[in-house]
Amino acid sequence: MLCALTIRSTVAEDPPPGGNTEPPYGQPLCGAVPVEGTPVFTGAMGWAKYAFHNPPQNYNPNTWYEVTHPGDYLPGVETPIQHTLRYAIEQLTGPRNIKVLVNGTIKLKSRLSMDDQSYVKITGEYATGIGPTVTGDEFRIKDCNNIVLRYLRFRSAEDPTSYHCARSLLILGEDEGCNDIIVDHCSIGASRDDNISVYGKLCRVTVQNCIIGGGVMSISKAGIGSGGLASNEHERLTYCRNLITNTKERQLHFSGHGRVDFFNNVVSINKWAIELASDNGTDSPKINIINNQFETANAWTRGTYFEDPIRARIINAPTNPPTSYSAHLPKSTNEHSIFVSGNRYRRYNPVESQYEEPYLLEDFPQWAMTYDFNNNAGHSNPLPGETDFPTVLAKSTAFDMPSDTILDTEDVKDHVLANAGCRLPVSGQVLDEHDKDLVDAAEVGDRLYKEDEGDNNGFPGTPILVSPADEATGVSTTVTLSWAASDETNCYLIAFGTLNPPSINHACQVSDPCCATPTQCCTPDTEFELSGLQPNTTYYWQVYAKNPCSIVPSANVRSFTTGS
């Protein structure tokens, strides 16, 4: 059953911080929102539905650049390869349509960033087979406007040999800001941090019909990270009809102080579902949370303890603001900032291996789905905090939204599990194995990523020094240092010299060639030859395992003394 929520206008009820203070209240900082017209594609929803509503004259909707090459190249180092995804994004300019026809993996050699571009559509919907999967590093949209991404998979660390600490997809408004961005029918997961981060100075962004989740090596931290910079605010973000599931910690983190609409999503298998915070210390998100299905599986570190789906640490506005507000939601300002309606909440009982009966809407007050962990400072502490947010934060009517069809709550799960994700139209809408596992797990309440494993935590292991032996004497003036390989390591930095501890240049990048001196070379090998040493001299050495997440030193510094 469908119901139309007809609240259609460019005007919000309350003037947003930093926005217009005179009528029409709520005018977005980036300009007026179209209230009618032709959606950018059939089924486009939310605040970005009218992206491309006024394209420039040099945009031709019937001209496509085809991506048929699965390879990649290092920009500025290697020769650009035509018909690769990087070439289509970084070498071509102006408004354009990009048709990604690769059937398989596009492994990035470095971050792929679309910077300061306008009116670009990128879609994999015309590919055959399983279609394109972008892996190896982060895909970023920075300070762009009118961008459409459809039928693509972004899994930055799906390849177990890829070690980086970025997201799979980042939409970043930093300088000029990002406007009118829509992400539809994509699979976004297998990251070591937020699978998708929507952050900064933003106006009109929609994420819809996506599968967001799934860890890699059990380390994916969160499904969606969304917020503003302390000096900016996001305006008009829409998340609808997504499956957000199976991450290590939170599923969603909203910390910006602008407007968010979150409706008809399935949020399942998590420690906690929605986390609200303040990025500027005074204002929380003004958010609609409407007709979603929340399904909580208890955290492995917390026994049978459950939190309600919507959490925050409610505080009084600080008199001496800290530098970070990532865990704080002030209650004395930005009143009436959260509207909660029509949501269903179920808990998975691990003892019985099944979901409990859902909290029925008529029996379960919606505000009881909130949880103030102010008295529960540690995330791993199972002691309860306050059962509900202070009612001063509750809004009795919805914030203004575009005119979209909102599913009845009882229809949400079936619809999302049957439609979300990168299901290519020409291939019969078949999910790949990663997404199928997530959908199956969400159906039955299965946690796919049980806990961190020691060698799969995203950070390099500790290298173990082998030769020469510590405090060895009579060593040749040409010597080979050797060490045991460490897990999740791209390369090794060698610290070497006559001082203890020896110095090293940590700024050396993984992709750099050997620097001018041996100690600055990041080598993938587990041995390194030194020559021309001084006789009768004591040297100290240490090895650092490096990947983009971190640099980890060997547990000790060794020394040796050369012979005469």
Explain what you see.
The chain is mainly beta and 564 residues long. Helix content is 5%, strand content 35%. The chain contains three helices and 39 strands. The strands form five sheets. It has an 18-stranded parallel beta sheet that branches. A hairpin with a 4-residue loop joins strand 27 (344-349) and strand 28 (354-355). The longest helix has 12 residues, at 433-444. It is globular and about 85 Å long. The termini are far apart.
Any chance you could write out the topology, listing elements then pairs?
Blueprint (H helix, E strand, L loop, with lengths): L1 E4 L58 E4 L17 H7 L4 E5 L3 E4 L4 E4 L2 E6 L8 E4 L3 E4 L2 E6 L2 E3 L13 E16 L2 E3 L4 E15 L2 E3 L8 E6 L7 E6 L2 E3 L4 E5 L4 E5 L2 E3 L3 E5 L9 E5 L2 E5 L12 E6 L12 E3 L7 E4 L2 E6 L4 E2 L14 E3 L31 E4 L1 H11 L13 H12 L19 E4 L4 E4 L3 E6 L6 E7 L24 E2 L3 E4 L7 E10 L2 E4 L4 E5 L2
Parallel strand pairs: 2-3, 3-6, 4-7, 5-8, 6-9, 7-10, 8-11, 9-11, 10-12, 11-13, 12-14, 13-15, 13-16, 14-17, 15-18, 16-19, 17-20, 18-21, 19-22, 20-23, 21-24, 22-26, 23-27, 24-25, 24-29, 32-39
Antiparallel strand pairs: 1-30, 27-28, 31-33, 33-36, 34-35, 34-37, 37-38, 37-39
The span between the termini is 88 Å
Helix content: under 10%
The biggest beta sheet, please?
18 strands, parallel
Number of DSSP helical runs: 3
Our Rg estimate from Cα atoms comes to 26 Å
Strand elements, count: 39
Low-pLDDT windows of residues:
1-28, 376-383, 505-519
Structural class: mainly beta
Q: How much strand? A: 35-45%
Mean pLDDT: 80
